[in-house]
Design a protein that fits this description.
Distance between the termini: 22 Å
Order of helices and strands: HH
Radius of gyration: 26 Å
Shape: rod-shaped
Structural class: mainly alpha
Strand content: under 5%
Number of helices: 2
Largest sheet: none
Low-confidence stretches: none
Number of strands: 0
Helix content: over 70%
Length: about 110
């Protein structure tokens, strides 16, 4: 027997839509981090500037770290979106089953 609680499926749809938008934004961020933040080693100075290689290496390390963070965030958001979608489907299926059960009950007007 139901305890009178209802789930607003439109709210779950809204969450899923927003998560998909966020995934799209994360794809853009990934592209920027990967292709638009590369700095050539010569930008840090000539080979006569001994620290230039260290600066370039530090930049590359941070660039790689940022790319991984974005990838991990993308995966987290994707997992959450898939889980939310599964929950929404289960609630929807249960509502349909409940509606069919009520309409098929003996003595109900069809």
């Amino acid at each position: 027997m139901s305890n009178g609680m209802r789930v607003d499926l439109s709210q779950l749809d809204d969450v899923i839509r927003k998560l998909n938008g966020l995934l799209s934004d994360m794809d853009k961020a990934n592209t920027k981090a990967k292709y638009e933040t590369d700095i050539p080693s010569t930008a840090f100075g000539s080979m006569k500037f001994l620290e230039s290689n260290e600066l370039h290496s530090a930049h590359q390390d941070q660039k790689t770290r940022i790319e991984k963070i974005i990838k991990d965030l993308h995966q987290l958001i994707d997992d959450f979106g898939k889980s939310t979608s599964k929950v929404r489907d289960k609630y929807s299926n249960q509502e349909q089953a409940n509606a069919q059960g009520v309409s098929a009950a003996p003595g109900s007007a069809n």
